[in-house]
Amino acid sequence: MKKILITLMLVIGSYAVEAQELVWNNNLNKAMEISKKTKKPLLLFFTGSDWCGWCIRLQTEVFKKPEFAAWAKENVVLVEVDFPRRTALSAELTAQNNELQQFFAVQGYPTVWFVNASKVDGKTNFDKLGSTGYLAGGPAAWLDVANGIIKKK
């Protein structure tokens, strides 16, 4: 009986962890469709996922915390704009990420832009709400800044 109860608790616990898992889009067009339907701005996370220490720190200290997950589900559509060194991206994804990096003049990582995006005559337009990066202080400090940016709209 104890084994069944423990097994049941593990299964339920794994579903709870899975439910907290965030969806990070890497396709801008798909993210824009979601943004349009939900009326939420995009959070563009410019990162070097496999080499940038500050990016990894931001992920660990903020983005992988339950407070951020709850906030993100309510407030933004997540988009990862990655520039890895050890992982090859498709040519299309590399081109998209390079265009976004140039448009937003990203020179350091991590950089996080909050934007509203729309398509007019097949061309993507961005309404820049603001940007930030790594901030010490965990989710509370980071979310204070993020809320200040998205509430300005």
Q: Could you describe the 3D structure shown?
A:
- The protein is α+β, with helices and mostly antiparallel strands and 153 residues long.
- 50% of the residues lie in helices and 21% in strands.
- It is built from 6 helices and 4 strands; from the N terminus they run ααβααβαββα.
- Strands 2-1-3-4 form a 4-stranded mixed beta sheet, with helices on both faces.
- Helix 4 (66-75) packs parallel to helix 6.
- The longest helix has 19 residues, at 2-20.
- It is globular and about 40 Å long.
Brief sketch in words of this structure:
The chain is α+β, with helices and mostly antiparallel strands and 153 residues long. It has helices spanning 2-20, 28-38, 53-63, 66-75, 91-103, 138-150, and strands spanning 42-47, 77-82, 111-120, 123-132.
Across the major sheet, the strand order is 2-1-3-4
Helix and strand pattern: HHEHHEHEEH
Shape: globular
Quaternary state reads single chain
Radius of gyration: 17 Å
Unreliable residue runs? 13-19
Tell me the strand percentage band: 15-25%
Give the number of helices: 6
Query: Structural class of the helix and strand makeup?
Result: alpha+beta
Topology:
Layout: H1 2-20, H2 28-38, E1 42-47, H3 53-63, H4 66-75, E2 77-82, H5 91-103, E3 111-120, E4 123-132, H6 138-150
Parallel strand pairs: 1-2
Antiparallel strand pairs: 1-3, 3-4
Helix pairs in contact: 4-6
What brief labels describe this structure?
alpha+beta; 153 residues; single chain
